[in-house]
Amino acid sequence: MKLYMCRKCDDVYLNLIQHNGDCDGHELNPLEVEVNGESYFEHEIYLRKTGNIVTITAGLDHPMIDVHHIKFMIIETMHGTFLQRFQLNSESSVTLLLAHDEEIDKVYVYCSVHSLLQYTEFK
Ligand SMILES: [Zn+2]
Ligand SMILES: [Zn+2]
Question: How many domains does the chain have?
């Protein structure tokens, strides 16, 4: 998974096939992924599974206000990739229906303050 950022517009781009774009003429920079840094615990991923239904929450008490919120989450399983964007003042949580043998491999969280974090272990 490769993401790019335009520092002028504060926008994030997801590279699905081949990156060759810009942002209305602005340069895009690869977005660094934080794997086990200072803000790890604040954005930690919680999984709650009932049968094939899984609820994925990023940061149990994370703020969802203008100055600090989780903008999106990307969930990778062995079968596919899910992208969930969040509104302000909503819960930073999504519920998915998995195939019966499907496991979640990796979750990316993008926070307006802490940028992109990656998780491969869940609570
Ligand atoms: Zn731009
Ligand atoms: Zn944050």
Answer: 2
- Ion ligand 2: residue ranges with CB closer than 5 A: 111, 113-114
6-52 residue pLDDT tens? 999 999 998 887 777 889 899 999 999 999 999 999 999 999 999 99
Give the Å distance between the CA of 118 and the centre of ligand 1.
Answer: 24
Centre of ligand 1 to C-alpha 93, Å, is: 28
pTM: 0.91
Q: Would you say 94 and 73 are in contact if contact means Cβ atoms under 8 Å apart? A: yes
Q: Please identify which residue in the block is written with the tokens 């969280």.
A: 109
Q: Nearest bound ligand to CA 26?
A: 1
Contact 42, 62 (CB under 8 A): yes
Range of the domain at 10: 1-31
CA atoms within 13 A on the CB side of 122: 18
Q: Is the dihedral of CA 22, 23, 29, 35 positive or negative?
A: negative
pLDDT digits (tens, 9 = 90+) for 62-78: 999 999 999 999 999 99
Residues 38 and 23 in one domain: no
